[in-house]
Design the sequence.
């Protein structure tokens, strides 16, 4: 008999459990059960009996991993830890520190929320409740029941109570008939509609405690891991995103395994509210929206227009140095143009309705993409291999019909401008051109203070090739070329299946802002398909006709979305070269207004942007107002400055730069005032 004391008791118990597990595995093998080869993330291979679970694999690696494990990836798919594995597999065990761990944790939290809501509101009907980037939401039908802050707190309290019971998440395969019978009896039309679209043999239920839900999973082992809970907000969402359907309540929440992590997240959330581009856009007078103009159609105010134009000047200057030719194309195009490109088939339902003219044979669309227009520019004359690469760049405004419930400030609009460019090159030039575009994107990030980013290689979904156009050979070639170009520049990359454009794979740059939030900014795509669809050609050195390759490129992506992210990243404190107003001149009293005006005029002659604050206010008030407007420099002038031809310089944030001549001020900060150079 084993005897132990203190901490040895746990070790002895663990040893006995390991012996028992090993015995059971041995017994399974003796009974003729097959053995599986499990490939671990480090490439090593371990053998386990068929039917082994992720939890058992985690335990075989270490007790610590077993305690912290939340889910397991099996051949690229995230599973529950207690689900049996019956074939050879490559696996990765996820903890809270992994995206796959958070995915299962927040998915399970959505089920815990639904359980709590049903306990407090019997008869509530449920739509869908997925995990999202931060937390989860659940679409629910509460009828006419009011649901505000007080109700959120009550559900939150119930969730904490239920989590402590530490119920296990149990997965069960059910037939379609059984699933329909269950939710018919429960009276939930939304679940019944979802089940109607599922195939018999592919339906699973999950249960924790007394709550049962239709779900594919995955989930964490038990509810007990959920320690800290916050329900954040209530919004409206049409069932299945269709405005013809009923509006449901979409309740957002987030959970953590530790209370401290929740507190840190809520602090970050408050900081994000202060940085919200919609709030700062209004305060800094950058942009506005008007219901009369139309939802999702931003109006750029004078200061916002200066900001936008500076970004365009910055990009145009870099593009000229990189060998791009500017082009301009119309805001509309013939419907046939987008039928040829494939955009109408893939995105027609997300576009505005066709524009019809008195000529019944004519039909136009608001431009959803710039690339078809650029293909037609390429076709305006014969091309030789010596002409390539040809690089066309355009700040082209495009239009997409986003659902009204999905519109959000500048990040989700219906009309937006892309810093679009298309490179037409020979196949042997693809990699070199792709690398040059990577360099341009990285230059943009460096100039604007985005230092934390990951390059995502966005690939086809191999299980759903019908979503894409073109043959496998060209797709494989394009995917390989993108990865090689990224490797050449030493980029840290992740490959994600199913995120490619319908005509080709791409390299998307996922940028983290000052608050650690991830945004997709900048994209580069290799396209062998549109040149075929538009029958683009060039005459090669062999005097034969060949197909060029297209590279689509947009370092900003959407200019509107880029500005929104930039505002929130720098909290409205733009780099000096980009600030709409770079200085304010603040006379101490009206006696010095004439000298102050001379200072303004001199700076404007040097293309430095600013204004004179000659209001009849105390200097302290003027300084505070300039701080609120986030003006980079406050130039204070009084009797001494006027007599000596100087200015007293104060930087935004309170840094005193002292008194200096105006010429010294300009020369000292000249590099910051001007556009960055490629």
Sequence:
């Amino acid at each position: 008999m084993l005897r132990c004391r203190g901490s040895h008791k746990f070790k002895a118990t663990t040893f006995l459990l390991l012996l028992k597990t090993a015995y059971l595995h041995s017994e399974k093998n003796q009974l003729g059960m097959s053995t599986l080869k499990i490939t671990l993330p480090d490439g090593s291979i371990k053998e386990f009996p068929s039917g082994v679970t992720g939890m058992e694999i985690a335990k075989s690696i270490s007790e610590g991993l077993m305690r912290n494990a939340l889910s397991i990836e099996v051949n690229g798919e995230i599973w529950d830890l207690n689900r049996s594995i019956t074939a050879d597999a490559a696996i990765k065990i996820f903890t809270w520190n992994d995206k796959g761990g958070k995915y299962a944790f927040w998915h399970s939290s959505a089920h815990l929320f639904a359980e709590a809501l049903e306990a407090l509101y019997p008869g509530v009907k449920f739509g869908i409740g997925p995990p999202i980037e931060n937390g989860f939401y659940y679409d629910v039908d509460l009828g006419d029941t009011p649901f505000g802050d007080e109700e959120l707190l009550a559900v939150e309290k119930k969730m904490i109570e239920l989590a402590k019971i530490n119920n296990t998440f149990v997965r069960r395969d059910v037939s379609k008939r059984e699933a329909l019978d269950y939710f018919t009896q429960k009276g939930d039309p939304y679940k019944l509609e979802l089940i109607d679209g599922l195939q018999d043999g592919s339906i699973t239920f999950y249960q924790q405690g007394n709550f049962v839900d239709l779900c594919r999973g995955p989930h964490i082992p038990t509810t007990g891991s959920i320690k800290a809970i916050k329900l954040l907000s209530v919004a409206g969402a049409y069932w299945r995103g269709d405005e013809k359907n009923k509006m449901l309540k979409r309740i957002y929440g987030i959970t953590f395994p530790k209370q401290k992590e929740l507190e840190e997240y809520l602090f970050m959330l408050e900081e994000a509210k202060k940085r919200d581009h919609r709030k700062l856009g209004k305060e800094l007078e950058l942009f506005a929206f008007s219901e009369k103009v139309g939802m999702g159609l931003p109006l750029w105010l004078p200061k916002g227009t200066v900001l936008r134009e500076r970004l365009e000047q910055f990009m145009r200057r870099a593009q000229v140095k990189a060998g791009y030719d500017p082009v301009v194309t119309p805001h509309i195009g013939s419907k046939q143009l987008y039928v040829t490109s494939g955009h109408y088939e893939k995105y027609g339902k997300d576009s505005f309705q066709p524009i019809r003219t008195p000529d019944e044979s004519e039909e136009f669309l608001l431009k959803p993409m710039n690339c078809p227009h650029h293909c037609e520019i390429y076709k305006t004359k014969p091309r030789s291999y010596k002409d390539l690469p040809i690089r066309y760049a355009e700040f082209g405004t495009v239009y997409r019909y986003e659902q009204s419930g999905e519109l959000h400030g500048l990040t989700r609009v219906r009309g937006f401008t892309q810093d679009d460019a298309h490179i037409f090159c020979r196949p042997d030039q693809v990699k070199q051109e792709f690398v040059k575009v990577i360099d341009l994107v990285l230059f943009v990030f460096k100039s604007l203070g985005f230092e934390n980013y990951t390059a995502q290689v966005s690939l086809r979904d191999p299980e759903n090739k019908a979503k894409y156009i073109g043959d496998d050979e060209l797709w494989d070639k394009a995917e390989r070329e993108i990865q090689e170009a990224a490797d050449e520049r030493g980029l840290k990359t992740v490959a994600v299946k199913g995120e490619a454009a319908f005509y080709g794979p791409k390299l998307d740059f996922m940028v983290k802002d000052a608050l650690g939030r991830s945004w997709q900014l900048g994209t580069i795509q290799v396209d062998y398909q549109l040149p075929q669809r538009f029958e683009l050609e060039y005459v090669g050195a062999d005097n034969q006709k060949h197909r060029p390759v297209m590279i689509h490129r947009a370092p900003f992506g959407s200019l509107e979305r880029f500005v929104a992210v930039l505002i929130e990243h720098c909290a409205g404190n733009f780099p000096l070269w980009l600030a709409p107003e770079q200085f304010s001149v603040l006379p101490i009293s009206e006696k010095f207004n004439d000298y102050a005006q001379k200072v303004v005029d001199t700076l404007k002659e040097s293309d430095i942007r600013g204004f004179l604050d000659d209001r009849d206010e105390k200097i302290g008030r003027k300084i505070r107002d300039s701080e609120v407007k986030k003006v980079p420099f406050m130039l204070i002038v009084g009797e001494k400055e006027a007599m000596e031809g100087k200015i007293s310089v104060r930087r935004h944030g309170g840094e005193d730069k002292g008194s200096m001549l105006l010429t010294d001020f300009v020369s000292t900060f000249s590099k910051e005032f001007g556009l960055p150079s490629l």
